[in-house]
Amino acid sequence: MFLHNLKYELISSYRVKDLIIWLILFPMILGTLFKAAFGNIYENISTFKTIPAAVVVEDGIDDTIFRQVMDSMTQGDEPFLKITYTDMDSALELLRKDDIKGIIVCGEKLSLTVSGTGSEQSALRSFADQYNNTQHIVMETLKNDPASAQKVIMSLQEDCSPVSSKPMTQGNTDNFIQYFYNLIAMVAIYGSVTGLHITVNNQANLSPLGARKCCSPTPKAVGLGASLIGSYIVQSGCMIICVSFLRFVLDIDFGDRLLLVYISAICGGILGVSLGFFIGSLNKFSFGMKTGLCMTISMISCYLSGLMVGDIKGDIASNVPWLNNINPASVISDCFYCLNIDSDYSRLKVKLLTMFALSAVFSVLGIIMTRRKKYAYI
Amino acid sequence: MNTVVKIENLVKRYGDLIALDHLCLDIYEGEVFGLLGPNGSGKTTTINCLLSLLSYDKGSIRIFGKEMTPVSYDIKKDIGIIMQNVAVFDELTVFENIDYFCGLYINDKAKRRQYVNEAIEFTGLNDFQKFYPKKLSGGLLRRLNIACGIAHKPKLIILDEPTVAVDPQSRNKILEGIQELNRNGTTIIYTSHYMEEIEQICTRIAIMDKGRKIAEGTKDQLKRMIKNTETITTELLELPDNVLSQISALPHVYSADYSGDKLTVCCSGGKHNLIRVLDVLQKNDLSFGRVYTELPTLNDVFLEITGTALRDKED
Asked: How many CB atoms within 10 Å of residue B260?
């Protein structure tokens, strides 16, 4: 009986055109648009380029150490700086022509002149700040322990690079990746519509089909269970298609733990279906109201997780952190953040357990509210 | 006769509205029991209560001698239901739909396949097995709805207005099918507001109005409950008042009315009423056109009991 129900649940689900449109095609289109919109921006800001700069050494300054540092900054396959030693007037002329991004003036302290703002100017400023902060240590070391000077200078050379970082994982630290995380979360939450249809097809007061099923000798828990499992399977398929499309067609880098990305997406899909099933089981509302409730919750959930406005999730984390912990879309997208950012699985485990717990609670409550029911109105 | 369905003092309220008012029904094995009444009279509410879909305020329902509840699976397995609204999956083909619903009752695959094929044969859907419901005409869709309800060979079939919006040809096929099911021993409960259908196929009838059962019996028993036994209609171009008075005074005539070039004479009992009426017209040298006589219908029964025609109520 269960397998019979499950078989037809799966057959009927994959023939639903709405499902194909909203859970497969729509995310593909949106993902492609995201890629088109954010791909170039990210390329521009994330691709490292050597920064052209002029260096002016003031008269009477011993620039031995400074020159050593500068030499290290201009060496290698992708040097941080391309330096032109010149005087101040020539340097200003180069800056005006935008041939260089800044002028580094080596005096008692390192000073910097830049025109405008941007990532290159910020990198130069960061370099100058770090140099000044450590210069004092270098000088003191040379005075007190000359033997250690070379080590300190090497340390300075390493620390001075404002573009070097030590990743916690092999994940993608691109800021725009969050939009793709939220896109996956959106697909998962859209599963609530699938969950809602389970109740429509199983409750006598919502459809003639539900009434006919209620008249059959199949226990309602069996029918509902089969419908739920069927919807979980279908939703999981949609999640796999969505992640695969983003990863392999749009070439979105989800880090090196792709299997866990798939698992997290599937868990998210199950949470979405369970949420919709729970909403559908609320007996007080009409089907239209339930549909509206489902869509509203989905959209608000996705909005607050940053699908439409990227910064909103950070603002919520700062001001109302508990909201991110109960927002299904945030919990789902957080899983991907954890996978990408964290080196261990502790936060991921918490997020996955949260999703499992929510799914279980929604599903069990839904079945309890639906089974063995007579209706006051049909 | 074994009682298949026993409804006692069933009361169902929707707020202040009483949908079922102390309804009592006994439906016996092997009969085609008709529930006749206008829209809103409580027919579908009765069926929904009977199937334990609707809660009710008072009363009891027993089917096959057992109390009916939402978890009476042993009772449900012997019931087939054909809803007023077509209840099939749009995403499944004709065959798949029948197989799905049959599978809710029959576990054995081979037996189920045989039953499904028989249901398809019975409803004449052989050529449409791979069609999706959206591709079917209204009549075929209704037949699919019926096939889904009867495929598991239930002992009791409940049909709630199964011919709504169906063309006459399909309607006749459906009615013939129901009679055939009954001949094979199935007990049928049939609700409709089409009195002709009820008269055609039902062996016993309950007439409902405003949630109450206002009459019950075979169609002959019901017709005997009312004064009218025959209505004679004659087309006349003119009818003097004195002639109308003569007709009114004839034995067994309890009502005579002339309007719209038509003389309508209602009789209660007696024989040769038509001959007597025509005698009066001939004696007064009145020429007449078509003459026809009608036996009382269930509408007349409804009219006489409630003071309103069933058809008027539908309007």
From this structure: 8
